[in-house]
Specification:
The protein is of the alpha/beta class. The protein folds into 2 domains: 11-214, Alanine racemase (TIM Barrel, Alpha-Beta Barrel), CATH 3.20.20; 234-357, Beta Barrel (Lyase, Ornithine Decarboxylase, Chain A, domain 1). The protein is 26% helix and 24% strand. It is built from 11 helices and 18 strands. The strands form 3 sheets. The protein has an 8-stranded parallel β-sheet. It has a 6-stranded antiparallel beta barrel with strand order 10-13-16-15-14-17. Strands 11-12 form a two-stranded antiparallel sheet. It is elongated, with a radius of gyration of 23 Å. Bound molecules: pyridoxal-5'-phosphate. Pyridoxal-5'-phosphate is lined by residues 33, 35, 80, 160, 192-194, 208-211, 218.
Length: 359
Amino acid sequence: MTRPTRATIDLSALRGNLAVARQHAGAARLWAVIKADAYGHGLMRAAGALEDLADGFALLDLADAIALREAGFRQPILLLEGFFEADEIPLLAEHGLTPVVHTLEQVEMLTSAALPARLPVYLKINTGMNRLGLSAEEFHAALTALDTLSCVASVTLMTHFADADLERGIVWQMARFDEAVQGCDQAVSLANSAALLRFPEARRGWARPGIMLYGSSPFPQDESAEALGLRPAMTLSSQLIAVQDLAAGERIGYGGIFTAERPMRIGIVACGYADGYPRHAPTGTPILVEGRRTRTVGRVSMDMIMVDLDGIPDAGIGSPVVLWGEGMPVDEVAAAAGTVSYELLCALAPRVPVIETNG
Ligand SMILES: *Cc1c(COP(=O)(O)O)cnc(C)c1O
């Protein structure tokens, strides 16, 4: 027997979730966002599953983009942070990649580039996220400069929403965007998952769904993934490898932060923070044992966590445990741990063996 910790990646869920994105997209085309190793699901695996359904792939790393090309993927590839140094630009053209241009420095580098092929670019406008993007004035200067460059095949106008999942929404940023691009006839790219699902006015040009493809809700406090028709693409599972019977007053785990107030049966799960389970998940974080919901108790350690077996009398060594995924929404685990599903999925550790399924 090997250590029973596994991540099962359901390729049919990835495909089904992209179909849900498509239902919401109207006439918009879809970049499948597969940055961060496809949010922990595996870059090549996700690209292979989504190949015939997505209009293109969006990611960050030039080496990953080239690896996709070398693996035979021919669809458009968008590099969300663009290029970092001028010597990357010929590689972009050679491999047919689309960089995001978000600084005047990048425009300058393009101006002096000698390219083997023409390059489509995305020009990013800062409409209030205040992370990447040109101001409205810089944007006009950049657009004028790019228009004169023979190496630029096309320009798409892009922005990114800060509050698409929240009360504040996107209307305030859309107003700034529409004002900045007034009179421009280029294609646009606006929506992340949250905007795609919530705001019909953002379904223009090329949408950029990420988290929803992996079966997680972009706004779990308002609407669950299940209610949105999304299915978990990753299930992190393990088993109980030991059981402890605690007397009242016994403490458990590092620091003894949990004390049994009455006699308790505790299951020890072979999964810890070195597998990607969040160390800051407190006592009470939901978890499935033998298909039944219970809670974690005590401090998460590197290789193990402890669970309350109260109400699951048939649980014992070898009992199946689902940390998140099928039957245990990652959004609920993330909420209990004070984080978002994105962080949990991306943090899946390389030591966890991955199994692919198809439904
Ligand atoms: C990560 C990212 C997305 C995808 O966002 P989700 O919330 O995962 O849908 C879209 N656009 C940009 C620029 C991003 O960096």
